[in-house]
Amino acid sequence: MNTQTSPFASTETRKADHIRICLEEDVQFQQTTNGLEDYRFTHCCLPELNRDEIDISTTFLGKTLGAPLLISSMTGGTPEAGIINRRLAEVAQHYRMAMGVGSQRVAVEKPQVADTFAMRKYAPGVLLFANLGAVQLNYDYGLDECLQIIDILEADALILHLNPLQECIQPRGDTNFRGLLDKIAILCSKLSVPVIAKEVGNGISAPIAQKLIAAGVQAIDVAGAGGTSWAKVESERAENMLQRRLGTTFADWGLPTAECLMSIRAVAPQIPLIASGGLRHGLDVAKALALGADLAGLAMPFLQAAASSEAAVYDLAQVLVAEITTVLFCTGSANLEQLKCSGNLQRIK
After folding, report:
1. Of all helices (H) and strands (E), which one includes residue 130?
2. pTM of this prediction?
3. Residue 152 in contact with residue 117, Cβ under 8 Å?
4. Which residues are bridge partners to 221 per DSSP?
5. Model confidence at 7, in pLDDT bands (50, 70, 90)?
6. Domain layout of the chain by residue ranges
């Protein structure tokens, strides 16, 4: 189903479209996977552990988390998005997970919707990430706007998301990425909170990660291919044949999440690293951690749950925690550090 959007459609309308399309249409990668299916843990039939004592807590950017989970950046800017974010924030607080929000450009354009992002009141102890498209630094956004969105969220860090393919397909997309790295470097030097560079589902390569780190970015979210295809999402919003064709052609474009993790960790062993892109359950999370991630982000599973009910989000979080704990138990790992150091994740393909 293709949605025709007026040339004057607002950012707010676009966000409502994105929620609807992600929930109602098949916009997942069809051929490219996250790559994690190529790996298998060695089962330990005698773990010599009490499962109830397994510790899946971790720290990220100096903050302690109850689980190595990030509710990835998704939405905000509409009444429905505000309800979704509140449900997510309350569950994040309960399980002490990290949480990001969707792009806050709409909150700068329309300050009256800022409350749909302002989740600190629901999640006072949570690691919260503000979010803005990096390309907006080439479209009259700068330090002041970044400080504004950080303040709205009372955020612990700022995500700058990189989405060149999405912008190519999106109606009236912002496609001037020239000189952006230098502007990111200037912003990193001026902000008092860490900057996280994140793709939106097409992956970050090791060479680009090195450039971002050199520019001052303090964490990387690989956001690899294998989950939601934003090329397909935007093709559902297409206003003409060209946009629909581009969305179809590039529906499976990108670097698999596992490949991004391995390549970045090889050249940047110390950078805080988030794995996202097609992670669907706790086994995916555990594999990503064993491949070098410090945190694992999920978006679609949480969006589907939050669109249903707050109880559904609690149920999902409980399942994810149980799945991660089970992996540790069945690999003989008492904590996440042991999981990472065990060497029992083997490539099978």
Report:
1. strand 128-133
2. 0.95
3. yes
4. 198, 274
5. very low
6. 32-347
CATH number for the region 32-347 comes to 3.20.20.70
40 is in an annotated binding site: no
Backbone angle region of 123, left / alpha / beta, with phi > 0 → left and psi within -120 to 50 → alpha = beta
pLDDT digits (tens, 9 = 90+) for 215-264: 999 999 999 999 999 999 999 999 999 999 999 999 999 999 999 999 99
The pLDDT tens digits of the residues spanning 95-136 come to 999 999 999 999 999 999 999 999 999 999 999 999 999 999
Q: Is 93 assigned a ligand-binding role in the annotation?
A: no
The residue type found at 155 is A
> Known binder of ligand: residue 279?
yes
Residue 72 annotated as lining a ligand binding site: yes
- β-pairing, 98-100 with 195-199? unpaired
Q: 50: annotated binding-site residue?
A: no
Asked if residue 15 belongs to a known ligand binding site, the reply is yes
Question: pLDDT tens digit string along 159-171?
Answer: 999 999 999 999 8
- CA–CA separation, 224 and 72 (whole Å): 13
Q: Is 192 annotated as a binding residue?
A: no
- Does 331 belong to an annotated binding site? no
Residue 113 to residues 81, 244, 298, Cα–Cα distance (Å) = 10, 30, 24
Q: Given the structure tokens 């294998």, which residue do they identify?
A: 226
pLDDT digits 0-9 by tens, 184-194: 999 999 999 99
75 annotated as a binding-site residue: yes
